[in-house]
Amino acid sequence: MTPAGRDIPALVRSRFRSALPARLGIALSGGGDSMALLHLLHECFGGGEVELYAATVDHGLRPGSADEAAAAGAAAARLGIPHEVLQWTDRPQDGNLQAQARAARYELLCGWARQHDIPVLALGHTADDQAETVLMRMARASGVTGLSGMAERRTHKGVTLLRPLLDVSRSELRRYLEDRGVDWAEDPSNEDTRFERVRMRKALEHLAPLGLTPETLAGVARNMSKAREALDWYVFLAARDLAHVQAGAVVLCRRKFRTLPGEISHRLLVRAFQWISGAAYPPRRVPMEKAVLAARSGSSVTLAGCRLVSTAKQVWICREYNAVNGETALPGQLWDGRWKIFGGDAKGCEVRALGRQGLAQCPDWRATGVPGPVLEATPAVWRGARLTAAPVAGMANGWSAETAGSEEEFFASLLSH
Questions:
Q1: Are the CB atoms for 272 and 236 separated by under 8 Å?
Q2: Are 329 and 350 contacting, i.e. CB atoms less than 8 angstroms apart?
Q3: Per the annotation, does 405 bind a ligand?
Q4: 310 among the known binding-site residues?
Q5: Residue 30 annotated as binding site
Q6: Using one digit for the tens of pLDDT, what is the confidence trace for 230-247?
Q7: 384 annotated ligand-binding residue
């Protein structure tokens, strides 16, 4: 049961800990949750202690969305908060519409925050949203990380995303707005049972009499979050003992990996795949379990744009050649979001994956100690169809290659999720 009459502004302020950002962005949809967030942050910081800015993403997916975005801007203006509407100009592709819209929303909002030098972006997710997330992940048989729900704080492309309302129920926020005479918009898609989240919302109405309330499930997420932090620490210690980064790949001592507890080995491998692929979200648990089995048994597997390659003593997690075949860049530019190549005469050259044919032209590649499938997905310098240099494969010819992320950054990533 949610405590009645809580001091919600004080709770929200406490989520910022001791260090307040000079500028704070607010993701404002115009719905009840984000409208409450807008007024709560104005109540907390409207005296000038923090500069507040708001932005609304107009996905343009239904009639009236532009009017709703304008209404959200008007609400911000009444509080003296600068506001901007961000348009989603890309049309959705086939597949999960809500997932595409969510990804676009984060991209647009974080881009807006960086443009305006806003280090922290506040999001209006509530205890109800957390409960729905936990239910959805239970339906997928998620582990500790999935059941820990949405993180209160995480970094996305240089912007800190903060959810200060995760312990506050939707009904509390509606009462807060009603007490202040503040109106809000209702998104009709919130009643569309074609969407999984809406179905989970309906299910919660039937589960509440059994004690499975949004507050209870949000509490489960908090407990799982604490367990996740403890597991992440032991993953970090294990990685320090048995992992290193070489040729842009994460390399594990196979003998030591096989002695790890199942959950630790699973989590270490998930993080390795995610770090190599650069994906925002980890692979699903079932295919990852197959990857862990492959690492333990000494076989190979491809997953999420990556490849796991086993040798007698090591397990290599690298990019899959098919995932980078077709990626091109000019020398000195970022290739595959991970590599830069410098040096030599760059006229008429471009950077492409080495591939099997390129590897065959590198006489000393075995001396590198790196498996061939790993080298095939590394960058090489090509002049038309002719291979000019492959620094990672031992054919430098005056060129050098370096990754954008260092070994220390990989270890740090194990504690940053």
A1: no
A2: yes
A3: no
A4: no
A5: yes
A6: 999 999 999 999 999 999
A7: no
